[in-house]
Write a structure and sequence with these properties.
Elements: H1 6-14, H2 23-48, H3 55-75, H4 85-103, H5 112-131
Length: 132
């Protein structure tokens, strides 16, 4: 299993979401039973509201924030948490492009955002299983 991002580990430890005695098993539990479930619910909401006029705007803001966060993390040499941060970076860029395309009506396929998000989720799950 990958060691993870030291800053993220500090955050989890300081918020008592994991213990230093069972760090790896606690992180695994959080990832598979909390993070993935929450992401699945959020991504399902983007599928339900795929036609909502302001969804691309919201996704653009979150994706720009994610892009900045990932670039900072990668510049510090932190590539992997549970799946590759380079993979997440590509997903953030794809979401930015899809959002801009939808905002400016360069595409009418409002399913682009949910497709990318679910691709990210399932790609990340596969990567995490392969790293165990």
């Amino acid at each position: 299993m990958r060691t993870g991002d030291p800053q993220f580990d500090k955050l989890l430890l300081s918020s008592n979401l994991i213990s230093s005695d069972n760090m790896e098993s606690d992180k695994k539990f959080l990832f598979y039973y909390v993070c993935i479930v929450v992401r699945f619910i959020l991504y399902s909401l983007t599928l339900v509201f795929h036609d909502y006029k302001y969804l691309p705007h919201l996704i653009l803001v979150f994706s720009l924030f994610a892009l900045l966060n990932l670039l900072i993390s990668l510049s510090k040499g932190n590539n992997n948490q549970w799946w590759s941060k380079k993979f997440q970076l590509v997903i953030a860029i794809l979401l930015i492009i899809a959002s801009i395309m939808l905002i400016f009506n360069w595409s009418s396929n409002t399913y682009l955002i949910p497709i990318i998000l679910f691709g990210s989720l399932f790609g990340g799950i596969i990567q995490s299983l392969m790293s165990n």
